[in-house]
């Protein structure tokens, strides 16, 4: 079953240095969807261990299975427009509406 449009939870504002968790979920897709987050239209990289992620200055953890995007400490650089895409290889992937977070 193709995924439906996911529901995204993105805070509209956050204080610098705080923990922010965004979530993305859809329940119709079978097999279960995987989730990809985008910031300002660019796919966010999945953080895998150390090395390359640290070099890229990644401050978040993205879980493609659960749809969560977790920032341990947000910075002004994390301000932007976020959305999430659900896909399971069947039918079209679906995006939630873009939401802006101001840090």
Describe this structure in words.
The chain has 103 residues and is mostly beta strands. The chain has a single domain (7-101), classed as Immunoglobulins (Immunoglobulin-like, Sandwich). It is built from 1 helix and 9 strands, in the order E-E-E-E-H-E-E-E-E-E. It has one helix at 52-55; strands at 7-9, 20-25, 34-39, 42-43, 60-63, 68-71, 80-87, 94-95, 99-101. Strands 3, 4, 7, 8 and 9 form a 5-stranded antiparallel β-sheet that branches. A hairpin with a 6-residue loop joins strand 7 and strand 8. The longest helix has 4 residues, at 52-55. The protein is elongated. The chain starts with 6 loop residues before the first strand and ends with a strand. The model has no long low-confidence stretch (mean pLDDT 91).
Record keyword descriptors for this entry.
103 residues; Immunoglobulin-like; 1 helix; 9 strands; 4% helix; 37% strand; Ig-like_dom_sf; membrane; JAM2
């Amino acid at each position: 079953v193709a995924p439906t449009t996911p529901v995204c939870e993105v805070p509209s504002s956050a204080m610098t240095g705080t923990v922010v968790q965004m979530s993305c979920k859809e329940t119709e897709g079978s097999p279960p969807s995987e989730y990809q987050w985008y910031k300002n239209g660019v796919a966010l990289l999945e953080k895998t261990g150390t090395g390359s992620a640290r070099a890229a200055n990644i401050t978040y953890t993205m879980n493609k299975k659960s749809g969560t995007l977790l920032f341990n400490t947000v910075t002004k650089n994390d301000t932007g427009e976020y959305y999430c895409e659900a896909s399971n290889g069947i039918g079209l992937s679906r995006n939630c509406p873009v939401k802006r977070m101001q840090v």
